[in-house]
Specification:
The protein has 341 residues and is α/β, with parallel strands linked by helices. The protein contains 13 helices and 12 strands. It binds zinc ion (ZN).
Length: 341
């Protein structure tokens, strides 16, 4: 067991904290087949032992926090993948599997469980008509009421199952979905950490959300009756997020050089703890990249560790890693970064 109060105390006294690395791509690298529509979501149901192993690997590599495998478990996605009757089951199991891994691997250390929340809803690819994971990564085609309902469902299930706090990992340029989600998560009474991915526009401004690869199918497509996607600077988006009173602001799913610039923006606009967990680069095409095992990451372990050190120097307190970065990147981290920020 771990109490969030102890994590809060560590944050308050300036301890550096190690988050986990990528959940879904780690499952992939273990050979777990991911669903074409719902990606890693159904694996809590179809491959529970592998999900436990994946979390255990992170704990043994030094993670203080592990994240539930719930990035792709919202009802509309699971329904489209044929798991509509298992929304509760899949989300409960995700939490229980993380708890089981904690039990097995924590070795007396405090390990906290973050409930991952994304705004990802798998949709229909407008080019091929196929429903698939890559078709949408933001939610402009979904109404505010529907979003509240979908987010409310998973946050109440995960809170009941026992996550220690929520980590909002909404992506795309839809800051509204991110804010709705953070508010809904807050309503459970649990602490909420809010994350942003970032990109740099042609005027060299750090922007919130956005896809880093312009070929992603969802970009720029506007649906009849949909909510507008507004371009926001990261500074504007962070100031909006602060209104919801998060415990931590993070930069995630962003390549290392952009993450470094984004951290500067966060630190200028937010006085609380900052977390970074970057994405690895791969040379294969956007939709195939995480499935392609013949490709190596562009970043070596040393490059990642150097970046982590420089972030802690900047004032970042929590470091982890996102898509493509496996546990081997985390292992040297505890030795490499100072105990205090
Ligand atoms: Zn990522």
């Amino acid at each position: 067991m771990a109490d969030y109060k102890d994590l809060k105390a560590r944050l308050d006294r300036g301890d550096t904290i190690i988050h986990d690395a990528a959940v879904s791509t780690e499952l992939q690298s273990m050979g777990v087949p991911l669903d074409f529509v719902a990606w890693s979501g159904p694996t809590n149901y179809t491959h529970p032992s592998s999900v436990i192993q994946m979390h255990e690997r992170h704990i043994r590599a030094g993670s203080d926090i592990i994240t539930t495998n719930t990035w792709s478990t919202l009802r509309p996605t699971l329904e489209r993948a044929g798991y509509g009757d298992f929304v509760r089951e899949i989300n409960v199991r995700a939490v229980h599997l993380a708890q089981e891994a904690r039990e097995r691997a924590s070795d007396g250390r405090n390990i906290w469980i973050a409930g991952s929340l994304s705004s990802h809803i798998s949709g229909r690819d407008p080019r091929t008509g196929e429903i698939g994971f890559g078709a949408f990564s933001s939610t402009p085609q979904v109404s505010v009421d529907e979003l509240r309902q979908y987010y409310g469902e998973v946050t109440s299930i995960m809170a009941e199952a026992g996550v220690d706090f929520f980590i909002v990992e909404a992506m795309g340029r839809d800051n509204e979905a991110r804010m709705i989600q953070a508010q809904v998560a807050k309503e459970t009474g649990l602490p909420v950490w809010i994350g942003f991915n970032a990109y740099i526009d042609s005027k060299d401004t750090v922007m919130a959300g956005g896809q880093q690869v312009s070929t992603d199918v969802a970009e720029g497509i506007q649906y009849k009756g949909s909510r507008a996607m507004k371009d926001l600077t990261l500074a504007e988006a962070v100031r909006e997020a602060i209104q919801i009173d998060p415990d931590v602001i993070s930069i995630f799913h962003t390549r290392i050089p952009t993450a470094t610039k984004a951290v500067e923006v966060v630190l200028e606009n937010w006085k609380g703890p900052v977390m970074v967990y970057p994405d690895a680069g791969r040379r294969s095409s956007a939709l195939a990249k995480w499935y392609d095992h013949s490709n190596d990451n562009e970043e070596s372990t040393e490059e990642y560790i150097d970046a982590a050190r420089s972030w802690v120097d900047q004032g970042v307190q929590i470091v982890g890693a996102c898509c493509g970065f496996g546990v081997e990147y985390l292992k040297p981290l505890r030795q490499a970064i100072p105990e205090k920020v």
